[in-house]
Amino acid sequence: MKNSGQADSGRLRRIEGRHNALVKDLRQAFGRGELTSSGECGIEGFRIIEEAVRSGVRIRAVFFSESAEQRAHKLLPQIASQVEALLLPDKLFTSAVPSQSPQGVAALVQLKTFSPEDVVESSSDGPLLVIAGVQDPGNLGTILRSAEAFSAKGVLLGDGTVSAYNSKVVRASAGSVFRVPIAKVALKAATDLLRGKSFRLLATSSHKGVALPEANLSGATAIFIGNEGAGIDKKLLSQMDELVMILHSPKVESLNAGVAASILLYEAARQRT
Does one domain contain both 69 and 132? Predict the structure, then answer.
C-alpha cells in the first residue's frame, strides 16, 4: 500500500512541452498581470495557494516544478481531486512563472469579480477605499490586506492604479485579494457613483486638513488614496468634502501610500467600536 505522499504525487501529470494549453494559459496570466478573458489569475507560492484554498477560490490547475516535486504531497491533499496537477521541468516552470524567488508551485485560479456598484453596496459598514493611481504592487497589496483587517467595505481601483491581480500584489496582500470586494472604475465615474449614494469623500494630506484624531470617519465614507509621488490630482482633490492630515515628524515629507491607508482604516475601525 502506498503512503499518502506517494499517492498524492501519483496525481501529478508530467508535461514537457511549452505549447500545452494550461501552460500557455499560466504564462499568459502572469504575463498580463490581469485576469485573463476567462477571469483567471496566476498565483505563485505555497502559502498563497493555501490561502486560495482556505478562501474557497476555484482552482483550475496547479503546477509544480521538478525540484519541488517532493513538497507536492504537502499541498495536494488540500486541493480537490478534480483539479489538474501538473509536473513541469524546472526550465519550463520558470519560463511561465516570472518570480524572483520561485517556490516551485503555481496555480490558475478563478476569482470572483465585482462591479463598482457591488462594492459600494457591500454589506460591511466600514469605509470604502478609492485608489487613485497607486502604482507600487507592495503598496496596493498592503492596502488590500489592511482593508480586510479593518473591515473596509471594499476597494475601487481608479485610473493609473496597478492591477490587483499582478502577482506581486497578490503576494503582498497575503490572500486578502481573494476575499475583499474589488472593482476597477474611472475616477470620474467613482465620484458620481459615491455622490449618488450619499458618501462623504475624504482624502489624505501631509500638510493641511483636519488632524486625524478629530476627523469623522464613521458613516458612509470613501477614502481616496493617491499616487506615491504625485498624490491626488488637484481637480479630484477639489471634489473632496474634507482633507485629513496624519500628523508626523516634519523630517518626513510624506507617508507611504500603504501606511497612510492602513492608519486611516485603523482609525475608522476604532471609531466604529
Answer: no
Q: What would the grid cell of residue 180 be?
A: 475583499
Identify whether the C-beta of residue 85 lies closer than 8 Å to the C-beta of residue 147: no
154 contacts 130 by C-beta, under 8 angstroms: no
Locate 94 and state its grid cell: 520558470
Residues of the chain with pLDDT under 70: 1-10
Which pTM does this prediction carry?
Answer: 0.90
Nearest to 43 by CA among 172, 209, 146, 155: 172
Same domain flag for 93 and 171:
no
Domain interval for residue 71: 4-110
Helices marked H in the chain: 4-9, 21-32, 46-54, 72-75, 90-96, 116-120, 137-149, 167-172, 187-196, 234-237, 257-272
Nearest to 174 by CA among 79, 49, 31: 49
Which triple of cell numbers denotes residue 92? 519550463
| Beta-bridge mates of residue 231 | 227
Based on the fold, state whether residues 76 and 131 are members of the same structural domain: no
Q: Is 140 helix (H, G, I), strand (E, B) or coil?
A: helix
pLDDT digits (tens, 9 = 90+) for 143-186: 999 999 999 999 999 999 999 999 999 999 999 999 999 999 99
SS (H, E, C) 160-190: CCCCCCCHHHHHHCCCHHHCCCEEECCHHHH
Type of residue at 215: A
Single out the residue in 110, 125, 151 at which a domain terminates: 110
User: Which of residues 66, 85, 110 is at a domain's end?
Assistant: 110
Amino acid type, 267: E
Number of domains in the chain: 2
133 and 264 together in one domain: yes
Report d(CA 170, CA 58) in Å as an integer: 16
**In a shared domain, residues 126 and 21:** no
